[in-house]
Amino acid sequence: AAPVQVQLVVPMAVVFGPGSVPGDLPKPLPFRDVQEMEISVNLRASVTSRYEMRYRSTTAREEAALAAATAREADAALHPLRDTTLGSLTMYVVPETSSLLPQGINVYVGKHRSALVRAGGSLAALQARLREVAQVMSFTASSIAAALSDRVPDGQLSPDARRYLKSSLGYEITFSLLNPDPKSHTVDWDIEGAVNRYVKPVLDKLSLVANFSVDSQILYYAVLGVTPRYDKESSSFLLSAHSLPHVINPVEARLGSSAASLYPVLNFLLYVPERSHSPLYIQDKDGAPVSTNAFHSPRWGGIMVYNVEAPASPQASLPLHVDVDMARVMEVFLAQLRLLFGLSWEEVPSEFLLESPGNEGLADWELDHLLWAHTVENIATVSTTLTSLAQLLDKIGNIVIKDDVASEVYRAVASVQSAVTKLSLGHLHAAFQASKEAVTSSERAFFDPSLLHLLYFPDDQKFAIYIPLFLPMAVPILLSLAKIVRESRQRKKEPTKMD
Amino acid sequence: VCTSRFWFNYRHVANTLSVYRSVKRLGIPDSHIVLMLADDMACNPRNPKPATVFSHKNMELNVYGDDVEVDYRSYEVTVENFLRVLTGRIPPSTPRSKRLLSDDRSNILIYMTGHGGNGFLKFQDSEEITNVELADAFEQMWQKRRYNELLFIIDTCQGASMYERFYSPNIMALASSQVGEDSLSHQPDLAIGVHLMDRYTFYVLEFLEEIHPASQTNMNDLFQVCPKSLCVSTPGHRTDLFRRDPQKVLITDFFGSVRKVEITTETLSLDRGVAAFESK
User: Fold this and answer.
1) Which positions in chain B touch A260 (Cβ < 8 Å)?
2) If exposure means fewest CB atoms within 10 Å of the residue's CB, which of A107, A220, B82, B184 is most exposed?
């Protein structure tokens, strides 16, 4: 694989609120500073991150906004006042003793692209904290390593690093309702309304990353592959954590997928247990029931178990009508969607307070996080693809490259160079678009049906075919040619003899 | 993949279908299986029991079953199509079921059977695939990370020659016989009139019937299947390209499908009072 050298530039503005300026500034405000760090993945991939920081003090309007009562209100008030281009970050430094941030919390990350940071005394301490915040909000060494996971030798990566969805041009999302017991439950779910109300805003926000298509279906008599265990203490049925991996396969056979598109499919299943197996709870490794009653599988999707309450009177007529609470269901499914994409808060230090993104599904900085990772992944993929295409062409010298394959390769090279340049300038959006184009072109070139090595004969096979045909014919021809030459030479000698 | 035509090659179709059946039983759905059968034995006019393909004599086990989904059938099973499926260089009009949509976390099992020789496998009685071409195709797959680990099983005469040339990482290979040896068939059925299965696959099938989805049997046990006393030929295997120790590789890593699962502990808090967006 070709060495990948990428420089990721994050433009950052650090704004000092009143009373928060550290005493040991090297220069008076405003000034610029650059911090570069090498995120080395291995010998063949070098990624350097470069945080271009502009330090300045607050304007009057920002000061007024920072005087709000809570961090959330301050963040909301500051939102219209700042630069919101993709990839940029703004940090507002508040005094160490400020009450804007709750006790024990040193950083508040809003749902856009800014954070409120508590001053740490010296500039060095502040810079360390700022670096941490910047990493959480843009990319960390581990997120870049995960994006480049193709190039990292297996031993060095944690087994979890390859579990996020790979960067793709589009994804298909399928919501399925599984009703194994239609005789007991008639389940109604307003999936269209739920998709319009809860899912669409999230997908609209993610539309920058990829195209999404959503389908839904209802499957009857679809059972889980595993029989749940009855637990007398809680008088409920339990599915233990180690039986969960075997649940998915029997269902998958019935799920189906769109015949036309080749995008990866994300399945979200809602399972309403049979009357005889209700209520059904999922147990985690320690044996406690899971509050969401749901689990997910990386790169596949998620399953949630929806328990129906027992009817009030035992004489209630079957089938029971069930109206699914779509909001509760979507809270879980959308959380699973976030986790499948790798947007989780588990690596965030405990002194950070993160604002919940609400109905939008993900914060602006989380979108940036995805874009950084996907751009780096795309660039690495394109370079691997083009390099291996070049190696293929080297090996099979007489392969014919069609014009459109050649133009796709040129376009891929130009796009990936543009992506790397834009990244080094800090234009994340443009870099991502360029990297997407590069991937499309390079995949189209690599997977062109005409590049099958079977179709092109190596030279030794050509010799093997033609020599048995032409050699026997060539022998009398060569012999008679030799005879003609000998005779003409003799005739030339004869006239001298006669003289 | 079954590469042989004609009624007297019934056993190759039965071989392939029995591996297909085991793999489905252990959990792999049809959407993840590409089945290539070069001839139709179940509906062959010479089949005395139509719509069946038996693997054991006295018609004990019908491997054709009820839900066999053949993706490439009859004349579509060619070397070109096989290589196109592996490398992904497929015309854009090909449907999803005929494609290998694998990625860098997929473990792939490739089972091939038919007539073969030293360094080649015969397709449809008219063309051959050489071990060099196969190795190159696997290398193309590796370059695009179309597999995480690959298990290659071949049941033909001189099968070991087919895996001699592999050079891509993470490939493990098994063959039914060494170079210079023939793989023999197992047993004829007098009512049907042909040999039903090959020995190696017959014993592999018996071995697989004991595996269930949660089984912990590893690859070393698969290497012991069909010793010379039963098989007459010497089965071979190649693990030098494989990164992990075969002792630690479970049979279900390739023949079944056990997924990684995580409990969902978070929820997204949604504001329920939101009005519905207009659908675009």
Assistant:
1) 96
2) A220
Q: What are phi and psi of A253, to 5 degrees?
A: -60, -25
CA atoms of B231 and B178, how far apart (whole Å): 12
Could you tell me the two tokens for B278? 């207009």
Q: Touching check for A344 and chain B: CB below 8 Å?
A: yes
Chain A positions touching B263 (Cβ under 8 A) are 241, 244, 282, 284, 290, 294-295
Closest chain A C-alpha to B188 CA, distance in angstroms: 34
CATH 1.10.274.10 is the classification of domain B7-255: no
Q: Do A248 and B259 touch (CB under 8 A)?
A: yes
DSSP E strands: which ranges in B25-176?
Answer: 36-37, 72-73, 107-113, 116-117, 120-123, 127-130, 149-155, 171-175
What would the DSSP string read from start to end of A225-258?
A: SSPPEEETTTTEEEE-GGGGGGTHHHHHHHH---
Cβ–Cβ gap A454/B133 under 8 Å: yes
Q: Supply φ then ψ for residue A304, to 5 degrees.
A: -125, 140
Q: What is the pTM of this model?
A: 0.85
Which residues lie below 8 Å from residue A274, measured CB to CB, with a gap of 6+?
A180, A181, A184, A223
- CA angle (A43 as vertex; A37, A45 as ends), nearest 5: 60
Burial A72-101 (b: 16+ CB within 10 A, else e): bebbbbbbeebeeebbbbbbbbbbeebebb
- A&B contacts, CB < 8 Å: 163
Q: What is the CA radius of gyration of chain A?
A: 33
Distance CA A281, CA A234 (A): 10
- List of residues 6+ apart from A495 with CB closer than 8 A: none
d(CA B245, CA A317): 58
What ranges do the domains of chain A cover? Answer: 170-341, 366-455, 458-492
Closest CA to A273 of A239, A250, A242, A301: A239
C-alpha of A97 from chain center:
39
- The tens-digit pLDDT sequence of chain A (499 residues) is 456 788 888 888 888 888 778 777 788 878 888 888 887 666 667 788 888 888 888 888 888 888 887 888 888 888 887 777 777 888 888 888 777 788 878 888 888 888 888 887 788 888 888 888 888 888 887 788 777 776 655 555 555 556 788 888 899 999 999 999 888 888 888 999 999 988 998 999 899 899 999 999 999 998 887 888 888 888 888 888 888 888 888 888 788 776 667 888 899 999 999 888 888 898 888 888 888 899 999 888 999 999 888 776 766 777 788 888 898 999 999 999 998 988 888 778 888 888 888 788 888 888 888 898 899 889 988 988 998 888 888 877 777 788 989 999 999 999 999 999 998 888 889 999 999 999 999 999 998 888 876 666 666 677 788 888 888 889 999 999 999 999 999 988 876 666 5
A196–B279 C-beta distance less than 8 A: yes
Give B267's contacts in chain A (Cβ within 8 Å). 292, 331-332, 335
Query: Which architecture, in CATH terms, is A366-455?
Result: Up-down Bundle (1.20)
Q: Which residues of B touch A358 (CB under 8 A)?
A: 269-271
- Quote the CA–CA distance of A66 and A56 in Å, as a whole number: 15
Domain boundaries, chain B: 7-255
Smallest Cβ–Cβ distance between B263 and the set A241, A262, A298 belongs to A241
Cα of first residue to Cα of last residue in chain B, in angstroms, is: 45
Report d(CA B154, CA B176) in Å as an integer: 6
Compute the distance between CA of residue A297 and CA of residue A163 in angstroms, rounded to an integer.
9
3-state secondary structure of A55: strand
CA distance B230 to chain A (A): 35
Q: Is A246 within 8 Å of B270 when comparing Cβ atoms?
A: no
Residue of B12, B56, B157, B226 with catalytic role: B157
Q: Could you confirm whether B195 is annotated as catalytic?
A: no
